[in-house]
Amino acid sequence: MTRSLLIIALYLTALFSLLPLVMRAQPTEDPRLGQLLQQDTDCIAPCFINIRPGSTTLNEALDSLARNPWVNTETIQHVTLPQSPSNFDKLDAIHWEWLPARPDYLVVVPNLPDGLINLRNNLVADIFIMTPLHLGSLLYRFGAPSDLLFYFSRTDPKPWGLDVYYTQPAYRFVFRVRAPACPDVASVLRQAVQMQFSAPTDRRPFTIEANAEPVRLTTQLIRRKHLLLCEK
Q1: Is the bond leading into 46 cis (omega within 30 degrees of zero)?
Q2: CA-to-CA distance for 105 and 97, rounded, in angstroms?
Q3: Is 129:70 a contact under the CB 8 Å cutoff?
Q4: Please, which residues bridge with residue 10 across strands?
Q5: Domain assignments of the chain as residue spans, ordered by start
Q6: Is the separation of the CB atoms in 103 and 182 below 8 Å?
Q7: Which among 208, 216, 155, 140 has a CA at the least distance from the CA of 185?
Q8: What is the rounded distance in angstroms from the CA atom of residue 3 to the CA atom of residue 58?
Q9: Which helix (H) or strand (E) holds 13?
Q10: Rounded to whole angstroms, how far apart are CA atoms 196 and 175?
Q11: Helices and strands counted in the chain (H then E)
């Protein structure tokens, strides 16, 4: 009897010691995502800091940035880009840096603009921001992506990346992760993402991976791509 109780006690001790590891391995909700998506109740997705892809003009975007308390106004730069050779659209970009007094869902990454806006024909097309949100928590929140776009290089070590698309009738979100070398699945899910707010579009990524089930199938695809691209 004493031996049986000891075995049960040891089993329960081992089980509960492993529980935190199991919990950390599972994607969970990140409250900062809700704060990011609801940062302005009058600004409905895909809107961000009162700038809405597809409808906000160049001058309106510059004005919103100049009035935003998180933006270092001295760093706002408007750049006119070379005209598109394919459809002769007028292309512009705006980039800026955040002030220290900003929400914790906005992060600063060395050698990258804190915020970037692409414009086409004087209308905002895309907004890009760096976040501390992990890909796993976003998959947990949004479920199955519309598309997955993988990047890789055949150099050694192989730079590796993934874009996760969520396309709806009214908006498109893209979550982008990058890794300096081929990572395992767990590392990919722990990567912080660059978030892209975009206007509705019928355009799809050049490389599409069909997906029908949240998180689990996505990790299977990541694992398969890892084996295909990184372990040859």
Answers
A1: yes
A2: 14
A3: no
A4: none
A5: 27-230
A6: no
A7: 216
A8: 76
A9: helix 2-25
A10: 6
A11: 6, 8
